[in-house]
Each structure stands twice: as C-alpha cells, then as structure tokens.
Design brief:
The complex is a heterodimer. In chain A, about 70% of the residues lie in helices and about 0% in strands. By secondary structure, chain A is mainly alpha-helical. Chain B is an alpha+beta fold. About 5% of the residues of chain B have low confidence. Classes of the chains: A mainly alpha, B alpha+beta.
Chain lengths: ~160, ~280
C-alpha cells in the first residue's frame, strides 16, 4: 500500500511542479524541462505493463489539458512507458522475484544514468517533433531536444541522488 | 478461435500501446481545429480556476509595476479628458441642430478589461487564456490590447473564459503601418523566435526607414482601431537583389509580464463585415 500512496503523491506533486513552475521556464528560448516523466521512470520494475501504459496515458493527458497541447504529452509518455521494460532489460540484470523501484541503489549508478538518459531522450524527441509537426524548423527542434533533455536528466538525477535508500 | 484468443492475449500490451497512441494522435489532430475541443484545454473551468489561483500568487509580485503603469495611464487619460472638454466647449454651438442616428466614428470602440490567467511564450504555437468570456460580452475575432500595445485576437470563447491567439503565434498576421510614413505591411512571428521580436514583411525597398521607427496598427482590419502601438524597428536588412526589406521588430508588449488586457468591442464590426462581403459578391 505505501508504494501506491507514494506514487499517487508523486503524480500530484510532479504535475503541479510541471504545470505551475516548469512550463514557465524559458531559458535561452530553448530549454523547457519536462520533469513529470520521473513518475513513469520511478514506477516499480515488475508493475504490469498494461498498467504502466494506462498510468502514462493519464499523466500525459493531464499535462496536455493544462498546456493546451492536444495529445502530444500523452503520446510521448505512452511511448516511454512502452519502451521502459526493454531498456531496463538492456541495462540491468534484475532477478525474476525482485520488484525494486528504479534508483541509483537498485540499478547501480551507471545503469541508472543510462536508463534515465535513454528514456528522457525518447520522450523529448517524440514530444518536440510532434510539437513542430514538420521538419521545417529542424535545427531549432534539434537544439530544443538536446538542451531540454540535458536539463531534464540533470534534474532527475539531482532529485534521485537526494532521496535516501 | 482459440489461437486467435491466445494471440490477442500474448500481444495485449502491444495492442493497448497502439490503442493509446491512436487516441493521442486523434487528440493532436483534433487540437489543430482549436475551436472544437474546448473541453480539453485551459478554458476548461476547473483548469482555468487553478490557473487563476496560481496567477493570483504570481500577480502579487507584479503589483508595483502594474500600479506604476496604471497611474501613468491615468494621468494620460486625465490630460486627454481636459483636452476634449476644451474642444467640446469650443464646438458646442454648432452641433445643436444636427441629429445623429449612427454611432459616431470616434465612439466605434468599447473596451472590456480582462485579466490574463495563462500565457505561454516558449511554444511553437502560443496561446493566452483570459478570465472573461461570452458572459462579459467577448466574441471570437475581437482584438486584444494591453496598455503597452497590441496583444492578439480572440479565438475561442466559452461562458467564463476565452482563448487569445497572440502575436507570438505564426497563425496570426497583423496589418500595421509606420507612424511616420503610413506605409503598411504584415507583422508575423516565426516559430521558435525570441518572444520579444517579430518580422515585418511587404515593405518595398524605396520606402525610407530607420532604426527605432514606430509601428502602429493600420486600422485596415476591423479588429483594431488605427494607431495602437505594435513595436519599433530593431534591425533591418536588404540585399541587392531583394525587392522587400527584412525587418526585425521589437514588440512593444512584453508577453512574459502580461497581466491586464483590454478586449476591443468594435460596435460597427458586423456592419462593416456585411458590407465588405456584399461588395465581393458578383452583381
């Protein structure tokens, strides 16, 4: 039960932080971090996949409603939730019986960094390409993807390194 | 049959994934048609309520500069009143016997004050949400200005809120002219550009312009009266082979600190539109 409560709490806090604070950030015109996907990254490893997908969809749609973006965030979040298991398998060797929450302690530092970087990159690429919906402004989109991913990754790693155990 | 069911169970996650992605894409595509899904946007009353609450906190920090602006505007308006009163007193005897049935041209416009409760400046397509809607007399296509200058045009309205397309959205082009020379052109913002600047097109090379020239609305579109400030020329380029200038305009409105705006209710808007439509029809 505590895990469920913890996740509900995290959902609310991350959505509020994203909508009220982070969406107003415009650093150099390119950097707009999307911290909210930390919620998907921090779901327990063995959680049923259909449930991760549905949670990701709900999360994305909530952000969409607040930022008038149709289904862009929903689409990107669902893609992240879908590719999550493959990436966990790729970088870590979690035994069958265990059900850890992804973090530095359970994955090891290098595996966890790789995990965060690849998922954040998938998410931001999808999101910014959907936002542009064309390759006309390709270099602007590309710069946005790289710089925003960098900031989001740093924020996620920072937050994770603060939490104990 | 059994095979089919097994197949569906084995790939259920994949199907769920595809299903959710299809829903998302439908929403994205529908969102292009902005009017239709007001339900899933920030003019939804619950979301708007939350933004209003958040804005009430942020606005507190802007009170000082807002006050300064208001008092400045107040004095300007008072001066204008005095000037107008003087004019009226000199004109009075002449207007006694004339009867007016129409709205006189100088009273064509009314202003509806509204507050900005959500405003984005860093997206490729930006929108602004206002705290007033159809209930307060706002209709789609009305112009929106602030004390500093032109903001945008109302796009969607529900009973309590409305969504504005600001200059910071490539879907909007505003017709404006130089205050000095009266040459007019279209002002448009490019996606991903800095929120302080926009581009002016259609100014031919024989026009004399210089840095810092003031741009005002031309009054050709019925949304805005003529003479509302839009911006100043920040930079301009012209190549030997070009027929038109490339002009970078510094917008007079700072969209990052936008908090109070006025919606322009043009009383003759409908009549003007009808007349223009009629003249376009084949005789």
């Amino acid at each position: 039960m505590p895990v469920v409560l913890q996740n509900i709490f995290r959902f609310i806090i991350l959505v509020l932080a994203q909508v009220l604070v982070l969406n107003n950030i415009q650093f150099l015109g390119y950097i707009n971090p999307y911290l909210y996907i930390l919620f998907i990254l921090a779901l327990p490893v063995q959680m049923p996949r259909w449930m991760t997908l549905l949670l990701a969809f709900a999360l994305g749609l909530t952000i969409d409603i607040f930022s008038n973006t149709g289904g862009m965030h929903a689409s990107a979040s669902v893609l992240v939730a879908f590719s999550r298991n493959g990436i966990i398998k790729l970088f870590t060797s979690i035994e069958e019986g265990n059900n850890p929450t992804p973090s530095f302690y359970t994955f090891g530092v290098s595996a966890y960094v790789k995990y965060v970087v690849s998922l954040v990159f998938i998410h931001h690429t999808t999101l910014f390409i959907l936002e542009a919906f064309s390759f006309a402004n390709f270099w602007i989109t590309f710069a946005k993807i790289i710089l925003s991913s960098l900031v989001t990754v740093l924020m996620i790693l920072g937050i994770q390194s603060l939490s104990k155990k | 049959m059994k095979n089919l069911i097994n197949f569906l169970i084995n790939y259920s996650v994949l199907f769920l994934f595809l299903f959710l992605e299809i829903i998302s894409f439908t929403l994205i595509v529908k969102n292009q048609d902005y009017q239709k899904n007001i339900f899933l946007t920030s003019s939804n009353s619950m979301v708007a309520g939350m933004y209003e609450w958040s804005n009430s906190v942020v606005e507190f920090f802007k009170l000082r500069s807002a006050n300064d602006n208001l008092s400045e505007e107040n004095t300007a308006l008072k001066n204008q009143i005095i000037k107008l009163q003087n004019q009226i007193s000199t004109l009075k005897p002449e207007t006694i016997d004339s009867v007016h049935f129409r709205i006189p041209p100088e009273m064509e416009y009314q202003f509806i004050a509204a507050k900005v409760i959500n405003c984005s400046t860093n997206k490729l397509l930006n929108y602004i949400t206002l705290n007033k809607g159809a209930r307060d007399g706002i209709c789609p296509d009305m112009g929106v200005i602030s004390d500093e200058g032109v903001v945008g045009i109302v796009k969607t309205v529900n009973s309590k809120n409305s969504v504005v397309i600001p200059i910071l959205n490539p879907k909007l082009e505003i017709s404006c002219k130089f205050k000095r020379s009266n040459y007019s052109g279209g002002l448009r913002w490019e996606s991903g550009e800095d929120y302080r600047y926009a581009n002016l097109t259609d100014i031919a090379r024989h026009v004399e312009i210089s840095l810092g020239d003031t741009l005002v609305t031309s009054g050709f579109t019925s949304n805005f009266p003529a003479g509302i400030p839009v911006g100043n020329i920040e930079d301009f380029k012209i190549k030997e082979s070009d027929a038109y200038y490339k002009i970078k305009v510094k917008l007079s409105v700072n969209f990052r600190t936008l908090s109070h705006v006025k919606v322009i209710n043009s009383l003759n808007y409908k009549e003007q539109k009808d007349l223009e439509k009629k003249s376009e029809e084949p005789q």
